[in-house]
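Blinded run. Sample ID left blank on purpose so nobody reads anything into the name before looking at the predicted structure. Input follows.
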Amino acid sequence: MRNLNDFETAIVLALRNTSPLTVADIEQKARMLAPVFGLDDYPIEQIIKSVETKLVTTMSEGISLVDQCAEHDDAWHEKKEISWDYWSDYEGHLKSEGWGPRVVNTMGDVTGKILGLLKNPEDAGEWKRRGLVIGHVQSGKTANYIGLISKAADAGYKLIIVIAGIHNNLRTQTQQRVDEGFIGRNSDPNRRGKLIGVGLDHPNRRFPVTLTTTDKDFDKRIANQLGADLQVYKQPVVVVIKKNVSTLKSLYAWLKEWNTRESADKIDNIPMLMIDDEADNASINTKKEDINPTETNKQIRNVLSLFRKSCYVGYTATPFANIFINPDTEDEMLGHDLFPRDFIYCLDAPTNYFGPQKVFVDEVSSPAILRTIDDAEHIISLKHKKDHPISDLPRSLKNAIHAFIVGKAIRIIRDHRNKHASMMVNASRFVDVQRQIREHISLYVKEMKNAVMFNYALPEAQALKNAHMQALREIYDEEFSDGSEPWQDIQKALYEAVDAIKIFVVNSKSDEALDYRWAEENGESLTALAIGGLSLSRGLTLEGLMVSYMYRNTKMYDTLMQMGRWFGYRADYEDLCRVWLPSESQGWYSHIAEATEELRQQIKQMRRDRMSPIDFGLYVRAHPDALLVTALNKMRYAERLTFTRNFSGRLLQTYILSSNDNLHSDNRSLIKDFYSDLKKDKAPVSIGNSFFWEKISWEKAEQFLIQFKFHKELQGEKALALDYLRKIADKYGAVDIAYVSLDKQSSNNSTFSLFENEKIFCQERAVGKTKENSIKQTPEQNGYYTSNKQNFMTTRDEALGLAVEIKERLNEEAEKNGKPVARIDYRLARARPFLTVHVLRLVHKPGKSEPDELLLDEVPALGISFPGGDYSVMVTVDRVANRILVKQLQDEGLDDPDEEDDDS
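Blinded prediction complete.
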């Protein structure tokens, strides 16, 4: 049998000290060693990719914002002698788990910096620190805070409290990770004491104490059994709990009864670190008292108040964190005891992170990953009730299942049969509907299994006479035929693939345990098809996730990104990953990916400008998208709300375009007249086929923007943007303007005449459905199109007109981080606002097998790019919170995330 693992290990060992190391070096060494392992004719591209992940993958250290007014020595841990035993054990564990050494080394540096932002546990007196770490969904936040826990324990913190989510399965998963990475022993009562993780390599270590287990959260019974002062423990103590009112009350009662001094009701000499891994669980309108955030946060503050020495660090996957968004006023936000006034640390993801940018934004990788659900509405409406009957599976879901089966077969060929593989189906928040979906999927998988069993060993031509086998072949041709695995080999592996599938319902009512760790301990791997709602949407890690099918509709940012279970690391099977989503959801994901990246880049800019966490909190509250995040949460209670808005570093696009061509004729005339007017004053600079003007008077641009007709859905944005531009006009005095064209015309692209022989080539853009079920709406319905992903501008468009030396500097900085230049970087580098004029050709793209359909041609559109640094310039918008507005927001597609799973 070909020993691919030994082959890979040999390459790693041969190259681990090579610096600098390139992919070409890996390929050369792989081809040199292949004959030694009898792999002369084996397609080794995936091995090369895996070795690249281990040896070439890098991770930047990220950036921090700190309170500029506070006195704090962030190098205290470098000035005292600390034996880094726990960290050293964890560092070795990560490397043994396949983490690249360069990434692990960087994680060590990052966790050291975050530790420095905490307090020295040996400092005298009473103190507290409050911070926030902003990571990425499924990017290693848990690994990061286990590293921080390890270093904090080495430095002298005696109690670590980890708040791990609102559901049992999430808490259990976190307890398992803490057991493996820090405790070193299995806390499961049935396997208690068994060495795992860091304990396997270091059986004589100082084992920390855990007061919770994989089976049991902290409760009154555990508290009564303990009945002990924390001072009796010589090793660090860990508690992993749900974010739950009753759990926090039990913990508080035990700490107060057994650990406080009677004279002051305070806990002395127990430096405590609290990690809140659900800091972005933002909904405040829940009906469930036990997870009501207002009461939950009160109980968290109660626990913190018991300690004379405490640090609270929230971990969030989005800068739109609830600590910035939820408070009703700025004063309330800044006065909140959990507000990260001391520091915010923004983590960078490793270069091999399979994240929102790659899935939704990148113009090369995104089309290979995303698939559109356009056939499910008649089977399972996005707004269905809890008793909705499911009569069948949509064809798109069957295709997703086919992709999972074929993808699993390819992984078997790649010798991944001992690695987990998963598929996610998230199409309802209701338990009973999830149960029906499971029944239909079970029947369909059984049909596929029977068909494969009787046909996979037959000659190809004979096997493909079976409809199910033909469907698998079609999905192979559609999705995977570009790979190195031929159909003949895949057909032989199909039965092993489909036979391995186990189907799970993952919700609060299910007794089916999706337990990857149990499988590993029993020498097995799981091929799991998981069906669920909130439990799949928040926190739960699906190991080896390959195929995701999500037919849900929400615009809540924290819910959107947490639903993205497909993010993570897929080094040796990234080419097999597919995501099925409705077109509008794709747009929202793209939008939030861009908005989130903008905020991350703003943190870097604010660091350069010596700003503080308070400034960032205020900036997030004024972000144009914060209105949506807060709207449903608050409008049920307030009669009138005033929102502040800030456009610094933002891009505004007229991505909503009327389906009535007559409404575009005035804009066509306007952009021609404006071009002539600009040309009279100053000749443009030609950049390819685009035209660029620098330093055009603000007044001229203002008049053009006033006359340009925005769709009514964007009129509010237009008014706010004009107000903002007027406020910054004195600072900049002028704007840059470009008429954007394709560099060359293709057979499908039309031209738009500007002046005599001067023209631009129209940019073709696909559009998706909006408020109606059909993509095409009649003018009588006041229909409109939205450009796919709510974005028609490209990275190239945003860079137009920038000096060569600026673009070279940005490219050099991006290459150091192993990433392309972020679009916001071009905005932050601009000296003034930038107005772009586009003419679009709108098409509907039904699929690979059908021709594109022209919907509208010569459609004018605008982009406004705002420079950065104007954090304090605010415009305001008042919204009256009446029932009609709330219903409108709900009708635009917001699931109530707090009713997930528990409705039956």
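Unblinding after everyone has recorded impressions. Residues 65-171+204-346 form a domain with the Rossmann fold fold (CATH 3.40.50).
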